Fold each of these.
Amino acid sequence: MKKTFAALLMAAGVALTGLPASAQTTLRVANWLPPQHPLFAEIIVPWTKQVEEATQGRVVMQILDAPLGPPPAHFDFAVNGVADVTFGVHNYTPGRFEVTELAEMSFLCEKSAYLSPAWWRIHSQYLEKLDEHRGAKLLGVWTHGPGQLWTRGRDVTSLDKIKGAKIRIGGGFAQSVANALELVPIQAPVTKAYEILSGGVADGIQFPPESVTAFKIDEVLDQGLIVPGGLYTASMFLVMNQAKWDALPKEDQDAILSVSGEALAKMAGEVWDRADAAAIALIKQKGRITLHEPTPGELDAIKAAIKPYQEQVLAKITAKGVNGQEVYDALVAEIAKVKAGN
């Protein structure tokens, strides 16, 4: 009798533990970054844990061990179901995401913690309807901190002195900044930054401070132009395969949304700001790089050079059916609200 009762308990235990497992949904999360990079380690990984907690374990996030392909391919990995969840940088796929350049423009904000939540709000209100993320469920947009200009052997104290410098740049509005300042753009993967700078292939690079130390190029640079609000930022996304999203119970969809969107943008902004502050402190401590903040006259010259390119972005947005100037003004106003704690 005792053996029979024990057997029944064991059978019941197996059945009970099997029930939650059968109700679980596993989402495969793609990653293309080194495991220690802040974007992955301090934003994406914590978000996956928040999803599991918010869904009370009904959704399990499985981060894939190896990259599925190059960073620009990751949006399509989500669309095509190669992975269930992916993240990336909008300007890695030129021409696909155009209105996201709004959040990449110069002088917008000194902190990602202000810009990122404001960007999510404005994108949701004005730009999501343009459906540039079609084929996937958009879960978040945010930006890194202010991008600046860093050089090796090139004076950054005037536009004349940096004119013609060979600079490794990213895409998006950073390309427009390079054109405005009459720089010579060098296209190279970010992983090659140290190599092209140390070898003299490039005279400098456009980067937020965090990336300067993260990729150890502070060892081969000697000047940094620190412009209030930044010369540019980069807009980023987090998306899920649409079919996978549609198959989730509404309870789990709501739980995921509760830790995504503005909550995710706020967390991401704070991570970037901490990383940038730590990088600037390290740069100053080492003393190898001279940091130059433009004088009022120099800043006016930089703004005048960049202004036509900003107007082009607003015109491009207007051509898609949303008033570019109106949405830009709304973003600036929203940044001020976030700063004020609203």
Note: Confidence is low (pLDDT under 50) at residues 1-22.
Amino acid sequence: MAVPFKASYPLFLCFILFCGVNCTEFEVGGHEGWVVPKTKDNAQMFNQWAAQNRFKIDDTLLFKYEKDSVMEVTEEEYEKCVSTRPLFFSNNGNTVFKVDRPGLFFFISGVRGHCERGQKMIIKVLDIEATPSPQYENGTAPKPHSKSGVAELTPMRIMTASTVFVMATFFLQLYV
């Protein structure tokens, strides 16, 4: 027996809302990752990278690194390159940080000397719904990041399991 379409209206609304969610995962620093800049000329490399991207609430930052850490700190701690009580700390080498509010976020390395050498970053998160901008270098398309030559999707669109579930349930109700 088919379910009347009117009974599917609430589910259809959920489908539209979930499909409208558009969050992006940004790999901090691009293919080089969260590393100490090699030269003093590159001391602003993370802030330059951040300036090329548009961040919004629910986006995630992926910090990839070896033998290091990442901390979210206050503006004062960012300027001093030191924090005894970071707002966020991780040292697992593959840190995902979810942006949960608009405004400025300040990040530094927790390893002594790394922040002073340029391993720090400020991101600005927009207060409005924004379409994410692709990560372009010098106006060219993103380059492949993997050794196999296959381009990685950065920033990548994220479709959650709940979105897939809602979509499947909606279409099943239409045809059952």
Note: Residues 22-159 form a domain with the Immunoglobulin-like fold (CATH 2.60.40.420).
